[in-house]
Amino acid sequence: MTTVDVSPAAKPEAVLFDMDGVLFDSMPVHAYAWMETARAFDLQATEREFYLAEGMTGEHTIRNLYTRQHHTDPDPALVERIYQHKSKLFRSHREEIPLIPGTLELMDYLHQVGVRMGVVTGSTTQNALPRIQKYYHDYICDEYLVTADRVNHGKPHPEPYVRGLEALRAKPESTLVIENAPMGVQSAHAAGIFTIAVTTGPVPEHKLREAGANLVLPNMHAVLAWWRAKYE
After folding, report:
1. 37-51 pLDDT, tens per residue?
2. Is the confidence at residue 88, as pLDDT, over 80?
3. Cβ contacts of residue 7 below 8 Å, gap of 6+?
4. Is the confidence at residue 25, as pLDDT, over 80?
5. pLDDT, position 3
6. What is the Cα–Cα distance from 13 to 1, expressed in whole angstroms?
7. Using 50, 70 and 90 to split pLDDT, how confident is the model at 18?
8. What is the 3-class SS of 36-83, one letter each residue?
9. 159-203 residue pLDDT tens
10. 230 contacts 7 by C-beta, under 8 angstroms
11. Per-residue pLDDT tens over the stretch 142-163
């Protein structure tokens, strides 16, 4: 794992987290639900591409798959039907989705030193808010949550992270993003925000760097260690 001595232009006053793969170890369940949905609707896909597309809105993901295969745009009603099928499969997962180790410790530390925190995710509010409220309610409130249905353009477009900056009333140069997927890294990079990528999933480090990550770290414990070494 490559670590270099880089940091934001100013000490961060705000941190924006991705959700799946950063707060929750949920990407295996998402990938399973996507693959089963692709089979049900006869869409050609691989599990790897769902990891690479993590952070993109469900609608965008479906349109990409359908257009690639059929060379035409899908009917909006079909897109909705496919997405509802995938969401139902994801929500039917019976086992508790574990938290990414070290995230609560990092958030608790940032809270103690007065850093504002928000979440920017490609999930819908219906899917994201209950999980955020259950596990991270001490640190993230609803107004600091940017979801797929609260933006016009999902990741990798910069709008989600621009909206995150607006929600926290923060400037790009004094904000930090923590991501785990190329699409999210591209979004944050395009919004002008210093971005740490954590390799919590199967996406290789070089893909995250190519997407624009300023720093790649192995896990959330390493993010906390980096912060303390920089700013204490």
Report:
1. 999 999 999 988 888
2. yes
3. 194, 230
4. yes
5. 42
6. 27
7. very high
8. HHHHHCCCCCCHHHHHHCCCCCHHHHHHHHHHHHHCCCCCHHHHHHHH
9. 999 999 999 999 999 999 999 999 999 999 999 999 999 999 888
10. yes
11. 999 999 999 999 999 999 999 9
129 near 119, Cβ under 8 Å? no
**Integer Cα distance of 230 and 132 in angstroms:** 28
Cα–Cα distance, 228 to 225 (Å, whole number): 5
**Count of CB atoms situated within 10 Å of the CB of 37:** 24
The helix/strand/coil state of 177 is strand
Q: Look over the chain and give the mean of its residue pLDDT values, rounded to a whole number.
A: 92
Residue type, 133: Q
What sign for the dihedral angle of Cα 217, 213, 181, 130? positive
- What are the C-alpha distances in Å from 30 to residues 55, 58, 74, 114, 204? 11, 11, 22, 33, 19
For 192, left (φ over 0), alpha (ψ -120 to 50), or beta? Answer: left
- Angstrom distance (rounded) from CA 181 to CA 213: 10
- Where are the alpha helices (H) located in the chain, listed in sequence order? 27-40, 47-52, 58-70, 76-91, 103-112, 125-135, 159-168, 182-190, 205-211, 220-231
The H or E element that residue 197 is part of is strand 194-198
Angle value at C-alpha 214, between 154 and 172, nearest 5 degrees = 60
Q: Is residue 224 a contact partner of residue 105, using CB atoms and an 8 Å limit? A: yes
